[in-house]
Structures are given as C-alpha cells and as structure tokens.
Write a structure and sequence with these properties.
By secondary structure, the protein is an alpha/beta fold. About 50% of the residues lie in helices and about 15% in strands. This is Endonuclease MutS2.
C-alpha cells in the first residue's frame, strides 16, 4: 500500500479530480475518489489492460451508452430493513437496470463484430445481474417523472376516477357562484382556486358574509379572503377522504415494489459496482485521449523508462517533455544545479507517473514508455527555493527522512528534493551523500535533487549512480526545463552576472576566489553540455531523415503493391476470359463429336470410329491454360510460318486449338475457323501444322445425313420422354444442316408436352429464341425455333 503522505506530496488527488470529470455517473465519480495505486503486479497489469480496452472501444465506437445510471445503493439498503422507497427512488432503480441492459447489448454487439478484443469488458458484462423482471414491475406502476400510474392497481384506478368526478362537481358548483349576477363586484377574481387542499373562491373583504362558509386564507393586503362556501363543504370533505384513500393505496403499491427491491438488493449492489467500474475505466480512457497519454509497459524489476514525459498537472501547451531512464545499470540519479531550474518538476513527474500507472491510469508520455510496480513509494519534497532555511524547516524534513529510512526496502522508489537543504552547506552536503549511500546501498531506486556542488562528484565516484541537470539558457537567462542525464548542473552565476552588466573585473576577481579546480570543473561541465546539445541536434536531424526515408519507402512499397495487385487482377481477368472461350469451344466440339457419332450409326459407318477418337484426342491435348504462351508472355515460341495461305491448318497458341485459315484480313491478321468459331487472330499467335488427309467418305456421310432433315418435327401423340429425346436429336440434325429456323409440332392438349419442350429449348446453347406459331403456322400447337 502506497503511503498517504506520498500521495499528498505528489498531488495525486488532483489527478483523480481531473479523471472524475470524465465520469458519466455519480457512481463512477465516487469510485474515482477511492482509486488508489496498487502494489500487486498482476492487478496493475489487469487495470491497464481494462483501460486499454476502454480506449479501443472509444476509438472504434466514439462513445459508450452510460446514461440513466443512478447510485441506488442507499435505496436498496433501506429496502433491506423494510423501508418504503419513494416513487422517484423506484424509478431510478428501473432506470439503472434499463441502462445496464443497454450496456450489455452494446458490449455483445462489439463482441459479435469481432473487430477488437475486449475480454475484460465481456467478463464485466457477464458479472452484471439481469433484473428485467423488477424493471418491468416498476415501469408498470411508475412513470419516468416518478408518479404512480392509474394502472398500478385496479383499486387506485377506481379511486382516482371517483376523485376526478367529485372534483368536477365542486368546480361546477363554484363556477356557478362565480357566474352569478353580483359576483363580479363581490369577487376579487373569477377563478376557482385551492387553499389547504380545499376548493375556495376569492371574496372581497367587505362581502365575506354574503357567501358564508369557512375562511382558509387571505391575500397579503388583507383585501381578499379565500372562502370555502357552505354549499361545498361536504363535497370537499368527500374529496379529502378520497385523497387519503388514494394515498393509502399508493403507499401499499410502493411497499410492494420496495419488497421486490429488497429481494434483489445484493444483485443491485453488484450491478452498481460493475457499472461504476466500467464508468471509471471509460473515464480513464477519455482522460488519456484528452491529455495525449499512453499505456506504459509494466515490469517488476524497478526499471523506469519515460519517453517525452510531461508533468501530469501542467498544461500540455507549456509542459516541457523529457526522456528519463534508470533502474537497470543506473539505479540512482542525482540532479544538481541552481534552484528554480525545474528539478522538482522532474522529480514529481517520475513519482506521479508511477502512481498513475499503478492505479491503472495512462501516463502523459509517448509509446515505448515503461514503468515499474513498486511496493512502496516515498517522497520528501518541499517548496524551499533558498538555502537560507530555518532550523524548524530542516528538522521537519529530517523527521520525514528518518521515517523513510525506517520503512523503505529494495522494492521502493524514493524521491528526495533538495536533500540536505536548510542547514550549513558543508554539513548538509555530507548528510545528503550519507543518506544517498544508505538508500542506494539497500537496493532502492532513488532520485534526488540538490544545489550543493559537493554532490556533483557523487555520480562519478559511485557505481550505479548518474549525475543529471536541468538545462539553462544563458541567452535568455532562464531554464529550459530539459533534463540532461550524465551532465551535472552548474550555477551559471558568473555568466548571468556578466549578462546583467556586472563589470568584468569583479567577475574575474570572483573567479580567482573559487580556485582553479572548480573553474576547470565548471568549464568541463559547460563543454559536456555543448557536446550533448550538438549530439542531440545531430540525432534529431538523423531521426528526421530516417522518418522521411521511411515515409518514402512506405509510399514506394504502396505503389509497388498496387501495381502488383493490378497486374495480378489483369492477368486473372485475361485467363478467365481465355478459359471461358476455350471451355465454350470444347463444349461445342464435344457436341459435334456426338452428332458425328450419331451420323455414323445412321449412314452405314461412312464416318470411322478411329476418326472420332483422333478428334477427341486432339481436343484433350490442347495446351493447358496455365502454360499458355501468350498469357505468360514467354519469350521462346515455336517458329511461325511466314508464307501462310488460305486453307492452311494452324495451331492457335493462345487457345491451344487447331484451326483453318479462311481469309487474310491484313499483313498480320487472319480469319481462322476453330470448330464452329470464326475469330480474327494475329499471325504471331499462329503455328503452321502439316495437313492430314481427311477421308472423303466422312464428308459424304455428313451430306447424306443433312439431306434427310426436314424443316418441321411432328411430336403429336408422343410420350413426354420420347418427345424430348426426338427433339434433342432433331435440333442437332438441324444445326448440322445449317438451318436457321425450324418448327416443332406438339399440339395444344394439356400443355405439358409444350412446356417440357420449351423448357428444354431454354437450356440449349444453340437455340437463339423460340415462339408460338402465328395463325398461318399452327398457333399455340406449334413452337417456332430460331437457331444460332
């Protein structure tokens, strides 16, 4: 547990106050007030992971539905002891349950989208009790304004109906009095009003006895009396009785609902706890977004690395970021130099960032930052800005230091500000060195600031200790607040005095009093500062060049990737187009082979079987698309014949098919017949093939068969299956005969045969269109077919 004194010294409570402003509910604000740094490593990692999930949700979704959440724990506790909850309290219970249901659905939607991983939010969703039954019961009885509805019970509805009727009667009677002939002069106003829950009329003082009845009130001037006339006293009494009865029924309903709350009070406590935790997590994320924070990596080794870290309580625009790293080889840092230089701010930055991270908060630094989980953190930080301190101030600091020395161990982070200040400089420096030796020697991580020059040598003489200073700009005579690790601080008193106009003779004399050794040390420090500044400038320029190179590399890589993707897409498109053409050609060729085989059966085997086998073999030996020379733009191809003539047999390389030259279109392009296809092909895509002599009887066989095909097919009286078979054969024969139009006679009948034939024609690749016959062609009994 981190000591309360350290939290107060480092102003941790101010950070909590800033985070609380991002909470949606009072539950969340209360939970932030109790947010303290954890000392268990696993717990700290869990808190940071939850916060990181909240940040991811905010980045992806923009916001989270957290409205309508109330702290209903006090109401639930009163219900547990038998108390009656007010209608507004019950409405808040219902609203909180409804808000939890909406939040559950929201988390489930993110889970189903599977865009970001949110295991901790899913676990919290599962931990939220489902209390929709209680919500429905409350909603049936109480509206959003906290009023009990007529529908809450039949008894209440009946009472209110009677009450409204009685009130209407009284109003009617009073309005009759108001409309009387002399009413305008006797009444101060012509409105019916209510006093002491009774209907009354405003009567002028001088006419108080004209109406009789009971005076319930008077105006501030005393000129008007509010009188309940005798004629409505009984009616008002009845209204009062009904209102008491109404109130009793309302209390009965509220008690019944309060009993339901009592039954689920433990679940309500759990629900409020989970909702508060989620509100705090999201508030942490919003705080991190607003303050440009990062989630640090955590370790258990005492290692601290803050990249461009800022003090959490300073404005982003003015805070100077610093890189701070120690905890491995270097376990102690001594920041030396004059006061007002920003040493204390650096000390608080390290301490406060550590506390924030251990509380699961993001820290104001850049990615790559890393912090340790410390079991204890101690800080002795004062606001003294002068070594002229009283004994009481020195004593108060020493009391705190004694307490630290009694409690710290190797798992502690110890921060000392102006260690040894407030007493004699020589003794103070000696005490500071001794205290640092004690803390560092027992393994704690320690940072200390001092303006004593004696401690500058401390970082050089002690292993594991480093000097540091805060940069001072001689030109502007002001600190830059940039931390320089490895360079001890110097007073700059002579330079400042010179810039302010102190004579050189006085400055030179002062230098002689300081001694040669000190002067040489100051010169060495100045040289170190200049060397460091130059190195940082070079590193910054190198970083800028590296970033520019990286941007250029990414740009070129993107363009290359886009080019490769476009090239691949074009290649794929070309292959698909070529494959489609080849597949269609093969399909047509298969059809032709089937037709030729059928012809052979019916033409005394004029077409030989081995010819059909050879045709099929040539189709199967077509060049695979993947090895196609045109698509792959291969450099080596077979020699093309330069003296092609009409009628030559060629191989079309891009399709892997054989064809015949029909016509020369230009010096480099031919019309080629490939099966039933005619295409224009470049001569660079053609390969000459030595012709094979075709048997004469094959052509004769085709001609004999074609001569037998008629222009119409009569299917009347045929069975459905037989008719389809005959239609299929007839269409093939008509195509071989090169017919453009044929007619199929199927008759009218039930229409089944017609529908079957037309369904077949729809699927046939070589059927261009079909229609019913016209009046002179057979009408609905005939289908006229147009062939491709």
């Amino acid at each position: 547990m981190i000591a309360e004194r350290a939290l107060k010294t480092l102003e941790y409570d101010k950070v909590r106050q800033q985070v609380a402003t991002y909470c949606t509910s009072s539950i969340g604000k209360s939970a932030v007030d109790e947010l303290v740094p954890q000392t268990d490593y696993d717990k700290v990692v869990q808190l940071l992971e939850e916060m990181d999930e909240g940040l991811s949700i905010l980045r992806v979704k923009g916001n989270v539905p957290m409205g309508g959440i109330f702290d209903v724990r006090p109401a639930a506790r009163r219900a547990q002891i038998g108390g009656m909850l007010a209608a507004m309290e019950l409405m808040e219970v219902s609203s909180t349950i409804r808000a939890s249901r909406i939040l559950r659905n929201f988390i489930e939607d993110i889970e189903s989208e599977d865009v970001i991983e949110i295991p901790h939010f899913i676990a919290k969703k599962e931990a939220m009790p489902v209390l929709t039954g209680l919500q429905h019961e409350i909603n049936n009885c109480i509206d959003d304004n906290g009023s009990v509805l007529d529908s809450a019970s039949q008894t209440l509805r009946s009472i209110r109906q009677t009450l409204r009727a009685e009130e209407a009667k009284v109003r009617s009677k009073l309005e009759s009095l108001i409309r009387g002939s002399n009413a305008s002069k006797m009444l101060s106003d012509t409105l019916v009003t209510i006093r002491n829950d009774r209907f009354v009329i405003p009567v002028k003082q001088e006419y108080r006895h004209h109406y009789g009845g009971i005076v319930h009130d008077q105006s501030s001037s005393g000129q008007t009396l509010f009188i309940e006339p005798d004629s409505i006293v009984q009616a008002n009494n009845e209204i009062h009785r009904l209102k008491m009865k109404e109130q009793a029924e309302i209390e009965r309903i509220l008690l019944a609902l309060s009993a339901m709350v009592e039954e689920v009070a433990p679940d309500l406590f759990n629900l409020v706890k989970v909702l508060g935790e989620i509100d705090v997590i999201l508030a942490k994320g919003k705080y991190g977004q607003a303050n440009k924070c990062t989630m640090p990596k955590m370790n258990n080794d005492g290692y601290i690395r803050l990249v461009r870290a800022r003090h959490p309580l300073l404005p982003i625009e003015t805070a100077v970021p610093n890189d701070i790293e120690f905890g491995k080889d270097i376990t102690a840092i001594v920041i030396t130099g004059p006061n007002t230089g920003g040493k204390t701010v650096t000390l608080k930055t390290v301490g406060l960032c550590t506390l924030m991270a251990q509380a699961g908060l993001p820290v104001p630094a850049l990615d790559g930052s890393e912090l340790a989980v410390f079991k204890q953190l101690f800080a002795d930080i004062g606001d003294e800005q002068s070594i002229e301190q009283s004994l009481s101030t020195f004593s108060s600091h020493m009391v705190n230091i004694v307490d630290i020395l009694q409690k710290f161990d190797y798992e502690s982070l110890v921060l000392f500000d102006e260690l040894g200040a407030g007493t004699d400089p020589q003794e103070g420096a000696a005490l500071a060195i001794s205290i640092l030796d004690e803390v560092h020697g027992r393994g704690a991580r320690v940072m200390a600031t001092t303006h004593y020059p004696e401690l500058k040598a401390y970082g050089y003489n002690r292993p594991g200790v480093a000097n540091a200073s805060v940069e001072f700009d001689i030109e502007t005579l002001s600190p830059t607040y940039r931390l320089l690790i490895g360079v001890p601080g110097r007073s700059n008193a002579f330079e400042i005095s010179n810039r302010l106009g102190l004579p050189d003779s006085i400055i030179d004399r002062a230098k002689s009093f300081t001694g040669t050794d000190r002067h040489e040390v100051e010169s060495m420090i100045a040289s170190l500062e200049e060397t460091r500044r130059q190195s940082e400038d070079d590193a910054e320029r190198s970083h800028e060049l590296l970033m520019e190179s990286e941007e250029l590399r990414k740009e070129l890589q993107g363009k290359l990737q886009a080019y490769e993707e476009r090239k691949e897409a074009l290649d794929k498109k070309a292959k698909e187009k070529a494959r489609k053409i080849v597949d269609e050609a093969k399909s047509e060729a298969e059809s032709i082979i089937a037709e030729l085989r059928e012809m052979r059966k019916n033409a005394d085997q004029v077409v030989k079987e081995h010819e059909l086998i050879e045709a099929r073999k040539r189709l199967e030996e077509a060049t695979p698309l993947e090895n196609n020379k045109v698509l792959k733009k291969a450099a080596q191809v077979k020699a093309r014949a330069q003296n092609l003539v009409v009628g030559d047999e060629v191989k079309v390389l891009s399709y892997g098919q054989r064809g015949t030259l029909l016509e020369k279109v230009s010096d480099s392009e031919w019309v080629v017949q490939m099966g039933i296809l005619k295409m224009k092909i470049s001569d660079s895509d053609l390969e000459y093939i030595k012709p094979e002599k075709e048997p004469v009887q094959r052509i004769a066989g085709v001609k004999n068969r074609n001569s037998q095909v008629k222009l119409e097919l009569d299917l009347r009286g045929e069975r459905y299956e037989d008719a389809i078979i005959r239609t299929e054969k007839y269409i093939d024969d008509a195509l071989l005969a090169n017919y453009g139009r044929v007619s199929i006679i199927h008759g009218v009948g039930t229409g089944a045969l017609r529908q079957g034939i037309q369904s077949y024609l729809k699927k046939h690749k070589r059927v261009k269109s079909f229609r019913f016959g016209e009046a002179g062609e057979g009408g609905l009994g005939v289908t006229v077919v147009e062939l491709k």
